[in-house]
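Hello again, I could really use a second opinion on something today. I've been staring at a protein lately and its backbone has me curious. You're getting the sequence in one-letter code plus the fold written as tokens. I'd be grateful if you could look everything over and explain what you see. No rush at all, and the record is pasted right below:
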Amino acid sequence: MSLTELIAGVEDHEKTLTVFNAGEETIETLREQFHDRNVSVSGEHTPSGRPAAFTVLADGDEFVAAADIESVLADDEEVEPNFEGEAYRPILDHLDETMFTSYDIEQMVAASREIEDRAWRIGKGTLRSGFQRLSILSGQMDIYEQLAQKGSLDVHAYAVPDADVPEHETDLTIHVERSDEIERSWFVAYDGAGVDVNKCALLAEEREPRSFYGFWTYDPSTVDWILDHLESTYGLLEPQ
């Protein structure tokens, strides 16, 4: 399985958010809130009209979670990718591996910084990041050299060769790959220093010019798969 196939698998796995006993305005607000997630939002009413407005999240026919409307409604900035679990509302806690669509560079950088910050704070383990092209990596070298100097953190960067390998004086490992998968994928994956609750990853592909489709995840098995795939598939290092 490739990174693209993993994204497609998540994309095909849509969740459903049913809003009970709420007005159409509230339902439309939630549709807009989740418009860039792989979640369909619909409205229903119970025969009695009770309890007061609430939501139910389902994965196919399987119940996942329920919460009142106030717990789910959030400002846009509160539902941006954020890899700190406590930043999520009750329903969002269950939207792991949920797709986002048409994220621009600014949104992708913000999501990436969350993972990089977690790796920095823990200061150990392995961080693997894909920059698509060496010319893009060159613009991020200050940040990645800092990361490579932090504690015992093992940092790897992946890119196709469209420019010279950036000069660096740290233990940053640069993987130069002539690979379509690397060229179209943006990823940041951190192994949490072996602790499952610290593992997180962002994975997306560029389907339109500088517009990205993908997902973020805290699921340890998914993070492990991404890391194992990168380690086993791409072993070519920078030229010596």
